[in-house]
Structure formats: structure tokens, C-alpha cells
Amino acid sequence: MKRTEFERVTPESVGVPSEAVRWLLDQLESGFTEPHGLILMRHGMIFAEGWWSPYAPGIRHGLQSHTKTYAATAVGIAYTEGLVKLNERIIDIFPDKAPASPSENLKKLTVRDVLCMGCGMDEMPRPSVDWIRDFLATPVNHAPGTTYMYNSMGSTLLGSIVCAKTGLGLHDYLKPRLFDKIGINAENLRWMRMPDGMEVGGGGLQATTEDNLRLMKLYLDGGVWEGERILTADYVRLATSLQNDSASEEKVNPPAKDNFLGYGFQIWMCRPKGVYRADGAMGQFTIVVPDKDLLIAITENAAGGHWAQTTLDVMWDFLDKIPNAENMPENPTAAAALAARMQRLSLPNEPYAPFSPTAELVNGTQWHVNAGALVLGDRMRQFMTGAEPAAAVTGFGLRICEDTCTFVFRRGTEELPLIAATDGTRRRNILDGAQALVSAAWTAPDTLLLTIRMIEGCFMQRLEYKFCGTQCTISTLGTGTFGTPVPEAVTASRC
Question: Rounded to an integer, what distance in angstroms lies between the CA atom of residue 358 and that of residue 343?
Fold first, then answer.
């Protein structure tokens, strides 16, 4: 892998006041979101960067739909290599998966239509074992390219298009052609996969904040990296400009104003003229501002919203604080203070309540779930791939020590121990093969709150255990993944 490290400079040296960056941090830490990582770049130089501990530069982060731009880039590279044509029909690429009598609209569906969310469907096909066949069997009710509907399965199909043309999946195709060239460590990436082994191009990639920055810098620079053309200029132009009217998104998610402004090739148009972004749910944004030669990459867990519109509103206000004139005197005091703050970023500590009389009563006890379903972990894999959810918890044991409590969950014959810190910190665990940070605190004399944070994603699971004699009620707090209803409370009895 060829990796050139970006130069780190002061904000003022690239025409950005340190005070403007400080204002941006103040906004991000004001409570509407939980920021995890932020990188600001201008003229190819990073002038501010920071991660909110326990997040860090090399830690992967769930990208959600930001993955789509990686999948579209693979199509763009295949187009650049002459292997894929934008006007090529989908049924010609997958003849063995097409219906025996395809509709006239399906016959017209092209690679370009899939790229710009113009598949003409009224509903997104659900993930399945034979998902390409099911995708092509979904009614195409409108002429392709004439309507807009967000379609994550179509984004995953982009990877299969590349595979059909090259014999390689997304990762293997992109490694020598993209990742190795622009400095993304391919070995550090993680992909969800469909039942047939194809990478989930619609939302299944884990990568770092800087990986995202590098990807979108390629677009800002017109498809050229260090003098080598990776994407044709015409593909970049099409990908980053209006290709489909997304105004219908207002009916789906009215607060998300920046989703109504149009769509390119797996890239969103933005309110400021000429600005575009790669976008993942819960605020995984890489924003490109061509007229300022500026990139903003952020990974976060936006509170209370699928689309993190407030983050975008803040970013547009931040752009207004960057003067048009770039001749700005250095401000060593402000720059040093900002750099020091960026190094100290941290998420708030977890709740800390060290004592409850109930702790002595439940220490060393075993419990059996007798009503309701308690499923641990992130449900993203199920949502994106159709995979079976993890088995429900059938019971648990509880051991309480001075600064930890250990839950030993039973899932059938499997035992899953999770050690939770009770001193306001977080303990590292492995949950279903993924890193999780776990904490617990007594929020009331009879109530124990368990928090499971998936460190390489942006989701948390908060479980509230309310003990009453030999009975326990377990409630899931917060919202479910992508609008999944919050499960009903689970009841358990002491064994």
C-alpha cells in the first residue's frame, strides 16, 4: 500500500479561524449528537482533527450508507477501465437471475438508474438468500430514471455488477485499484456480506474517519490521486452532480431538509451551492466543498434522528464562518489552545452510583426469562443481510464486585459473559465477534442500568433491570435500529 501522510497545519494557515473550529466543537458537544471523530482538511492539508475517547484514529466505525459511495466508486473504476457501461441493462448483466418474462420497465433498468436511486420500484426488496433474483422480481412500477426511491439493495447490487464483470468482490476489486493507491489500509476494513458472499454495498462497511476523507478527496480532486487518474473526469462530474430529483424524500423523513435537494451516484447534493456529501445514517458524513477546497469528515451517533440533519445545519453555519479571503495572520495562541482541546476530546463518563442495597440481594443469583424476547447486540446485520438474529437470552446470572458486575447470559446451551464497569468507566468485551464497551450503574435502589456500546459502530443498547423480590423486569431504553420498534419489556424470575 502506498500511503502519503497528509500535512498537519494550523487553521489560520489555510484561511480558517481557530475560533470557528472551536465554535464547531462547541456545537457538536452541545447534546444533539454524540461525536466520535472529526477531520477538517483544506488545500490537501489537515488543519484540525480529533476523536472523542474511547474512539481513536485507527478504530473502524460503522459507516451505514456511507458504504454506498464506496460501492459506487467501484462501479466508477470499472467504468474507467471500460468494463462497465452506464447504459448497460441490468437484465443483460444477470440473465440467469432475471424473470422469464421481464416487464418493459425492468428491461429498461440500467446501471445508471441503479446508481442514482432511479430503479422505478415503489418498495425496496428485502434481503434474502437469492437476493439478486428477488431484486429483479420486484415490480418496477415506473420507468427507470423517472422517479426516486432510496434503495439500499440496489446499492448492494452495484457490487454484484462489478463482480459479474470482473469476477472479484468489492474488497478484492478495490484493494489494488483504490485502497492501495489512496492510502486506505484494506486489512483494517470489515464488510458485512450477503448470503451469497457478496459484500453489502448498501451499508455494511466499517472503516475509519480518515478512510472516508481519503475517498472523498479523490472526488474533490476530479478522480486523480497524486497524478494518477483513478476515475474518469466525466464519471466524477456525473457522480457529484444532480442525476435524480430526491424531493420525494420529504414524505419519508420531513426533518431531513438536505435529503430533498437531489442525488448523484450514491452521493447527495447539499444546500450550499456546489456542495455534496457521502452520507450514512446517524451522521456518518464526508462533506465536499469545492469552492473552498474543503473536506469535512465526521463519524457520530446522532441522537434522536436517523439522518442527523442538525449536524448538517451546524456544518453550513461553520462554512459561513470561513472568510472568502484566505490571507489570514497566524494566531499561535488560539491554534495551540484548539490543538490541545482536540487532543483531550472525550465522551462523558457513564453514570456512577456505587452502592445499592439491592446489590447484596442479587449478587450471585440466577434468573430465568419467562416472558418476552431479549436479544443482545447490534441488529444491523439482520437489517442489511436478512441474517437470522442472534438467539434470544433464556436467562442470566449476576455477580457483583467492587467495581464491576458480570452478567452471564444464557442463549440456549451457550453462555455469554459480559463484564460491566461500575466505576463510571467502560470495560472492553467481545459480543458476537465484535468489540463492545460495557458499563453498569444503579440508577435507583432497585434499578440497574446496563449499557452496551458497539465500539466499531454507532449503536448502543441500554437495558434497565428493575428488581422486585424474586422478579425482574428488563426494559430496552432508547430507539431500535433504523426505526425498529423498541422490544416489549422482558420478565424474569429468580431461579
Answer: 40
Give me the pLDDT at residue 478, please. Answer: 66
User: Is 84:236 a contact under the CB 8 Å cutoff?
Assistant: no
State which of 294, 314, 343 marks the end of a domain: 343
- CATH number, domain of 480, equals 2.40.128.20
d(CA 329, CA 73): 39
Note whether 221 and 294 are same-domain residues.
yes
Residues 359 and 442: beta-carbon distance below 8 Å: yes
- Grid coordinates given for 213: 476523507
pTM higher than 0.90, yes or no?
yes
Same domain, 429 and 397: yes
Domain that holds residue 312: 12-343
pLDDT at residue 386, rounded to an integer: 79
Q: Are 20 and 157 in a shared domain?
A: yes
> Which cell goes with 274?
456546489
User: Which position has the grid cell 457490487?
Assistant: 159
Give pLDDT, residue 483.
54
Q: For the chain, give the longest Cα–Cα distance.
A: 72
All three cell numbers of 144, joined, read 427507470
Selection from 53, 56, 40, 55 nearest residue 8 by Cα: 40
For residue 382, the model assigns a pLDDT of: 74
Helix 332-343 and helix 18-28, axial crossing angle in degrees, nearest 10: 30
User: What's the CA gap between 169 and 175, in Å, rounded?
Assistant: 10
Clarify whether residues 314 and 367 are in a common domain. no
Domain check: are 238 and 369 in the same one? no
Asked if residue 331 and residue 239 are part of one domain, the reply reads yes
- Check residue 197 and give its pLDDT: 95
In a 3-state reduction of DSSP, which class is residue 75?
A: helix
Radius of gyration of the chain (CA): 24
CA-CA-CA-CA dihedral for 42, 43, 44, 47, to nearest 10:
-40
The C-alpha cell at 290 is 469545492
User: Which among 316, 343, 370 is the end of a domain?
Assistant: 343
Indicate whether 352 belongs to any domain: no
Mean pLDDT by 10 residues, the chain (495 residues): 93 98 97 94 98 95 96 98 98 97 98 98 92 97 97 98 98 98 98 96 96 98 98 98 96 90 98 97 96 97 73 97 91 97 94 88 96 82 78 95 95 93 94 92 96 87 95 83 71 96
